[in-house]
Design goal:
This protein is mainly β. The protein is built from one helix and 14 strands, in the order ββββββαββββββββ. The chain has one domain: Jelly Rolls, CATH 2.60.120.260. β4 and β5 form a beta hairpin. It is globular and about 55 Å long. GO terms for molecular function: dipeptidyl-peptidase activity.
Length: about 190
């Protein structure tokens, strides 16, 4: 797994084969002592039993071979790393009429800035996906203050900016039960 010091990883090892199918949702309790807002990005990765991150090439091998493609560029249209989600904390207000159990819909009509050190609940939906995990393979939830997805085109690598300043904290335990909710289909 890449070792970006600005990303936090949570890992779950599957004891039995299982398929993640649909939209996952993260509920994170977070704070920042340094600013009145924060951008939070999340991504799910799949690793093999040894912890190696698995990537999905979006073009079938036989099609790559047919056109002589020997190398696949690490860009989002060609390589899928896993579903992503993002939220600016000041837009955390949920629209109860549009949200579902699996997908939090946010009301973007007004911003609610944070007080420094204030712990807020962020509900972040991840794009729909279908990922099969065999026994021993791992699901990794990564949380960061910057986008972790691959760029759409090489010139865009590192070009996306955000408004983050300072440190962010994720709170776990007690009344702050940060968690990932995933829709699964048991495999036989």
């Amino acid at each position: 797994m890449d070792q970006d010091t600005e990303e936090l990883s949570f890992t779950h090892k599957f004891e039995h084969a299982c398929t993640l199918l649909g939209s996952a949702r993260a509920v994170l309790f977070m704070s920042t002592p340094d600013h009145d807002d924060m951008d939070v990005h999340i991504q799910i990765h799949k690793t093999d039993a040894s912890g190696k991150v698995l990537q999905y090439i979006n073009i079938p091998k036989e099609d790559r071979d047919a056109v002589g493609m020997t190398k696949v560029e690490l860009v989002n249209p060609m390589v899928y790393l896993g579903p992503i989600g993002a939220l600016r904390a000041s837009y955390r207000q949920i629209d109860q009429n549009l949200s579902t159990e699996r997908w939090p819909e946010h009301n973007f009509s007004q911003r609610e800035m944070l007080e420094r050190g204030q712990i807020v609940q962020l509900e972040i939906g991840l794009w729909q996906t279908g990922i099969r995990f065999e026994a021993g393979e791992q699901l990794v939830l990564k949380v960061s203050g910057h986008p972790m997805t691959l760029a759409e085109f090489p010139p865009l690598r590192g070009a996306m900016q955000n408004a983050n300043k300072g440190r962010h904290s994720i709170h776990v335990g007690g009344e702050h039960i940060s968690r990932l909710i995933i829709p699964t289909v048991p495999s036989s």
